[in-house]
Design brief:
This protein is of the alpha+beta class and 149 residues long. Helix content is 20%, strand content 35%. The protein contains one helix and ten strands, in the order H-E-E-E-E-E-E-E-E-E-E. It is elongated, with a radius of gyration of 29 Å.
Length: 149
């Protein structure tokens, strides 16, 4: 302080930079984790050529089950006639998870009432295209799923 009780101009400028820098650092340390949380990093697709859906004896006729194929969900359905089919379990409209409706014998998306037949074809609602179908191979009692070529 000088004789009049004021800080010299250089000290005042130094304090402005010090406090301003501290506030910017504080704001960055609070906001960066917040934005990082709100926008999680994208996960790379896991390259999987085939996966096991379980044993055929675990599936009753006319039931469906969600299984993982890498990091994607698949819907495996054992049809009333005993045939096993596998489809992508994400709706082609907004990526909601679909499910098998046994009473209506359709694949149904609860988000916007999208409906697919048991061949994966979109038959009602907003889905713009059919579900992706996967190849099902039986190895003894085990159900193996792979991508169609």
């Amino acid at each position: 302080m000088n004789d009049k009780g004021h800080l010299p101009e250089e000290r005042r400028t130094f304090l402005k930079y010090l406090i301003g820098g501290g506030l910017i650092g504080f704001a960055g340390s609070v906001l960066y984790p917040l934005f990082a949380f709100l926008k999680p990093p994208k996960q790379a697709d896991v390259e999987v050529t085939s996966a096991s859906a379980g044993k055929l004896s675990e599936f009753e006729k006319g039931t469906g089950k969600i299984v993982r194929f890498g990091n994607k969900p698949l819907l495996v359905i054992r049809m009333p006639n005993g045939e096993v089919k596998a489809f992508s379990a994400t709706c082609t409209h907004f990526d909601c998870t679909v499910q098998y409706k046994k009473d209506l014998e359709i694949i149904w998306c609860a988000c916007h009432n999208g409906k697919y037949d048991l061949n994966g074809k979109n038959i009602a609602g907003p889905p713009p295209r059919p579900l992706d179908e996967y190849r099902v191979v039986m190895k003894g009692d085990e159900i193996l799923i792979s991508k169609k070529a």
